[in-house]
Amino acid sequence: MNSVLIIDKPAGLTSHDVVNRVRRILGQRAVGHLGTLDPLATGVLPLVAGSFTRLAQFYTASEKTYEGVIRFGFATDTYDAEGVPLTAPQMVQVSLEQLREKATRFCGVIEQMPPPFSAKKIKGVPAYKLARKKKDTPLKPVRVEIKEFEILGLEGDRARFRARVASGTYMRSVAHEIGQALGCGAHLASLRRTALAEFVLADCHLLEEVEGAAKTGQIEEVLVHPRQLLPHLPNVTANDEMAARIRTGQAVNLPELSRAPQIKVFYGQRELIAIATRVAGTLFHAKIVMAGETAVASLPRYAPAPPAAWSKPES
Predict the structure, then answer these.
(1) Angle, to 10 degrees, between the axis of helix 96-104 and the axis of helix 171-182?
(2) Taking the model in full, what pTM does it have?
(3) Number of C-alpha atoms within 13 angstroms, CB side, residue 42?
(4) Sign of the Cα pseudo-torsion (82, 5, 163, 313, in order)
(5) Which of 38, 80, 157, 203 is catalytic?
(6) Consecutive 10-residue runs of the chain (315 residues): their mean pLDDT?
(7) Which of 25, 37, 119, 214 is the 20 to 30 A CA-CA neighbour of 220?
(8) What are the structural domains, with CATH classification, of the chain?
C-alpha cells in the first residue's frame, strides 16, 4: 500500500514506536516518518508507507510549527521536563514584557547548541548515548533559523509560546537558552507540533482511529489523498501511453508544463506513479517512479529514506 497518513502522536511514545505500531496495523514493513518528535512531544507526525517512502527526500528541509510551554526556575540535563533538574527550583520574577523582549533575540538565523541528549553524532556516536553514560558531549553550535517565536502568555513560572522554525531547530535548546539569558534556568515543559510542511493538526488521526479503520476495511478514509501531497508541484494525469513510458523509465514530452521544474504524475485520480523532473525544453524524466506496491525503473524494492528525514530530532 502506497500511502501517507498523519498521526497525532501521543506523549510517551517515540516516533519509532508509532512507526512500529502502524507497521503492524497495515501489515507492511515499508513505513517511515518525516520528522522525529521526542517522546515528550505530541502532534503532527506524518508517516509514509510503501513506495511513498521515496517521497521523504522532498521533506528533509520542511518548515515546522510548534506550540508549547517553557517552565522557568531550573534547567534540566535533557533541556525538557523528562530530565534531571540541574539545580533546585528558584523563584522567578519576570514580566511578560521582559520575556517577550528576550524572545526577540532568538528570531532569525542564529547559532544554537544542540541538547546533550540528542542524535547529533560525536565521532560517529549519537550524543545521547554518551550523555546516558555521563560522558562528555562536546557538541558544536549549529546554524538554525527561527522564523517566528512568540510568547503568548505568562502564568507564574510558565510561559506559553508559538514558534515557526526551519528544519534542524531544537525547541528544547530554545527553552534552555532563554532560561540562561534570564539567569534563572528553564526547560521545555510541553511541546505540540501543529504543522509540518503542508500537514496540519486537522489532518491528524489517533492511532486508535487508524487501527479501527484498518479492521473495518475503511483505511482509505484516514489516508491523505495523494493529490494533496507536495502542493507546490503541478499535477498531471497520464494517459495509458504516457503512463507506460513513465513506468519503464522513459522520458515524456509535456508542452503545457514547459516551465515547471518538477511535476507529480498520476494515473487516474488517485494513483501517484511518479515525480518527474524537466530535462530540457518540454521533456520530463521521472526522478521517482512508483507502481503498485513497489518502486520500479532501477530503484530498489525497498530502501529507507535518508537519515535526516527519518531520525533527525526537531524538538
Answers:
(1) 120
(2) 0.86
(3) 15
(4) positive
(5) 38
(6) 95 95 95 93 97 94 97 95 93 91 94 80 68 73 94 96 95 95 94 98 97 95 95 92 89 80 92 92 90 37 32 39
(7) 37
(8) 64-196 (3.30.2350.10), 228-295 (2.30.130.10)
